[in-house]
Amino acid sequence: MKEIINSLNNYFDQWGTILTIPDFLSEIQDIFSKSFFSRENSRLVFSVCPDDINRLDERKTVENALKENYGGEFNLGGLGAYPIAGLSGMIAASHHLPDDIKSEKRKAGNLLFYVSPHFGILQQRELLYGKIIRPGQKKITDSCGAIMGFLSALKTSGSSKTFIVPPDADYLDISRFVLQTELKSLFSEEIDKLLDITETNLQVAELFKLNYDLVLLKSKVMIDEFLKKESFEGHIGVIGGLTVNLAREDLFILKDLFFPKND
User: Fold this and answer.
1) Distance between CA atoms of 87 and 229, rounded to whole angstroms?
2) Pairing of strands 236-245, 127-129
3) For site-directed labelling of 210, which of 3, 130, 192, 200 has its Cα 20 to 30 A away?
4) Which pTM does this prediction carry?
5) Residue 39: partners with Cβ closer than 8 Å, 6 or more residues away
């Protein structure tokens, strides 16, 4: 574990705070309890990847830890954690909140957003970013597969300009199509810079930072539109960062923690 954390510090020390699950929970619970969030009055809204590595019972995961402390979750995320359920999904989530009842007065509960793409780290003779051996398997696989697949396609194309997002005319692969289209459209300059990086782990780390930037950007825009459209009484909190999948447990790189209604 020490080797992994030291490695993460090399790539993410200026980007976010690297936390174990207990330290992550301690960090957020102290802040959110002071802002009136509890298991009884809040609903988690996840913009995370559907990859089951993030919630398998065989592993200690950030997602499962959050659910144990803040109740059930409403899922917005598609591949790469892109909030594919959109504004309509966000509005639906707001209709599922437990009531916040004080002195017999009913008030709508709170929304707690968890925005987090993920990537694996495999520890062998050397550390491999973007890779993992999943429970029950012996082979090495990608984590996150959607983003690592995107990186492979970019390397084959040579640049963001020459990379053509495979079309999806019949809407059979819409999550992949939207994710790749948005990354190419919004971060073409940054993508070309990371393609020049020769150190593999650094290249992977930089791409997942872009993945997070995209997911947080879209989530913030959707939350702003939600607040314009809906008369929402409760509090809104956002936890943002990158989930790191190790063999038996997750780490979390905390990047952002904020309250959109207060900003």
Assistant:
1) 10
2) unpaired
3) 3
4) 0.94
5) 69, 70, 71
